[in-house]
Amino acid sequence: MAYDEDLAARIREHLAHAGVEEKRMFGGVGFLLNGNMLVGVWKDALVARLGAVAGEAALADPSARPFDPAGKPMKGWVLIDPDGLEGAGLGDWIDRALAFVEGLPPK
User: CATH number for the domain including 78?
Assistant: First the structure.
């Protein structure tokens, strides 16, 4: 299954001001800030890098689950199902990821 191009376009629109780089990753597309993965699209879901604490807390949301592309969950990363991305949901998840990734040193 290819990744959701419409979701990628919505992410591009939300991040137009942020100066992110786009890169093919995980069989989908990733958006990097200062060389650090921020968010991405994997199949029809959003991948968000939130860090260990916020990532664990995010799993309380019914639309979130661990990001597990290769059989081992990636700590601090969550996968948000399409129902959690409706309305302002997408922007909220992206903003959470920005809050974490903006604090990382550039690569």
Answer: 3.90.1150.30
Structure tokens at 47: 């991948």
Structure tokens at 56: 């664990």
* Residue 55 structure tokens: 């990532």
CA 90, CA 49: separation in Å to the nearest integer? 13
First-to-last C-alpha distance (Å) of the chain: 31
pTM above 0.90? yes
Distance CA 58, CA 75 (A): 12
pLDDT tens digit at each of 107 positions of the chain: 589 999 999 999 999 998 899 999 888 999 999 999 999 999 999 999 999 999 999 999 999 999 998 888 999 999 999 999 998 999 999 999 999 999 999 99
Is 59 a domain residue? Answer: yes
